[in-house]
Design a protein that fits this description.
3-stranded antiparallel beta sheet; 18 helices; mainly alpha; about 50% helix; binds s-citryldethia Coenzyme A; globular
């Protein structure tokens, strides 16, 4: 970290304070403000943490201005083209790409943790058939600590890594079980003869009455989508996992909190919201009307899948997914009018002064739903797909925090309520 500092002066008292500059290996420099309350008596105010770094991390780097995303230094474009989801998972967890034997051992490890306790299927069967799968996921993942308390000493690195691998391994099994419950189908179990993504697709779509052939196109595309959604530094759900983890809560509870945070339409729930929006717009002729609604301050409508807290350029993931969406539709020999509608919506928005000035570009959620839809994933399961992939990022970030002495997360506030006043007896009110 550099020895630079920024000096601030309180004009009221004339006191000054040197704020140390903290610089990482890449990215904007930050100011350490820890000394501010005790020296100048001020806290800082930053709703939504738009200008605040919450931690130091070595996992993912984003340059929002240039549209750069790297996992452990490797550009997302190269990983998307050359890697696999489990290899990326190893990279995010360990910091390095695995050798072939390390990868084989890791894959074997994950494969042999994909089953869940049979009682979890009983738990899932307790939900109403039309329960939203994200509600089910949050509940079921939060309950894992009730099943896997055998190795829960989080001061033990082996127990921590086991919990991390268990969650990576079991998310597809739980996700598919939630979907099958909704469909009224019998439980399906992981197949160790298949790879991670193929086994997930088999658990999602196989039925007892006939042999299910996993589509290699679908398996490769899902693997790509899982890579692209695996981590994204301190986004809302990852920050939630870190905050819950900072209290010493177990990793299953921390990830369950992350699932709930991801569900919001401003975050991972946007992929589902994009499809709903495209259906509502319905036709290219109505795009202009919805662009105007998105620009209207008095209208709560926003262009879902557009805009980003960090990217003020095209989200590099969106570019890759857009290309993959085209290829999937071509491979399947189908077209989707929603794809044409999305492309027209993007074209018009990117030419509009409002979107240009506010640097609003398509984000990771804008095109992913087109692919999920083409591959038979129901809209209500879109964010579950995101959660399966992001579990790798959540547990990697949780592990990193566990390995670093971290104070409990506890922001302050600007109090704007009533000042001191005496209790008024009921008869006098
Ligand atoms: C994800 O953080 C991550 O990394 C998240 C993520 C990940 O991988 O974890 O990348 C995944 O969550 C992607 C984002 C998915 N959400 C959506 O697509 C929902 C639609 N987008 C917006 O709600 C919004 O863009 C956010 C929430 C994504 C970002 O909001 P910010 O950073 O808080 O910005 P803002 O809301 O303050 O917007 C800045 C301006 C505002 O106008 P002014 O108040 O300055 O006049 O841009 C406007 C906003 O009104 N604006 C939009 C808009 N997004 C922002 N106007 C219309 N349509 C939009 N989509």
């Amino acid at each position: 970290m550099s020895e630079q500092c920024v000096i601030i002066t309180d004009e009221n008292s004339g006191n000054t304070l040197e704020l140390p500059v903290i610089s990482g290996t890449e990215g904007e420099p930050t100011l350490s403000i820890k000394a501010l309350p005790s020296t100048l008596g001020y806290f800082t105010y930053d709703p939504g943490f738009t200008a605040t770094a919450s931690c130091t991390s070595k996992i993912t780097y984003i340059d929002g201005g240039k549209g750069i995303l790297r996992y452990r230094g490797y550009p997302i474009e190269q990983l998307a083209e050359k890697s696999t989801f489990l290899e990326v998972a190893y990279l995010l967890l360990s910091g390095e790409l695995p050798t072939s034997s390390e990868l084989a051992d890791f894959q074997d490890d994950i494969t042999h943790h994909t089953m869940v306790h049979e009682k979890l299927n009983t738990f899932i069967s307790g939900f109403h058939y039309d329960a939203h799968p994200m509600a089910m996921m949050a509940g079921v993942v939060g309950s894992l600590s009730a099943f896997y308390h055998d190795k829960m000493d989080m001061s033990d690195p082996e127990h921590r890594m086991l919990a991390a691998k268990r969650m990576i391994a079991k998310m597809p099994t739980i996700a598919a079980a939630c979907y099958r419950h909704h469909m009224g189908w019998p439980a399906a179990y992981p197949k160790n003869s298949l790879n991670y993504t193929e086994s997930f697709l088999d658990m999602m779509f196989s039925v007892p009455t006939e042999k299910y052939e996993v589509s290699t196109v679908a398996a490769r595309v899902f693997d790509l989508l899982f890579i692209l959604h695996a981590d994204h530094e301190q986004n809302a759900s990852t920050s939630t996992v870190r905050l819950v983890g900072s209290t010493g809560a177990n990793p299953y509870a921390s990830v369950a909190a992350g699932i709930s945070a991801l569900w919001g339409p401003a975050h991972g729930g946007a992929n589902e919201a994009v499809l709903t929006m495209l259906h509502e717009i319905g036709d290219v002729s109505r795009v202009g009307k919805y662009i105007e609604k998105a620009k209207d301050k008095d209208d709560p409508f926003r262009l879902m899948g557009f805009g980003h807290r960090v990217y003020k350029n095209y989200d590099p993931r969106a570019s890759i997914i857009r290309k993959a969406a085209y290829e999937v539709l071509e491979e399947l020999g189908t077209t989707d009018p929603l794809m044409d509608l999305a492309m027209e919506l993007e074209r018009i928005a990117l030419e509009d002064e409002y979107f240009i000035t506010k640097k609003l570009y398509p984000n990771v959620d804008f095109y992913s739903g087109i692919i999920y839809k083409a591959l038979g994933i129901p809209v209500s399961m879109f964010t579950v797909m995101f959660a399966i992939a992001r579990t790798v990022g959540w547990v990697s970030q949780w592990l990193e925090q566990e390995e670093t002495p971290t104070p409990i997360g506890r922001p302050r506030q600007v109090y704007a309520g009533a000042t001191e006043r005496d209790y008024v007896p009921l008869e006098s009110r």
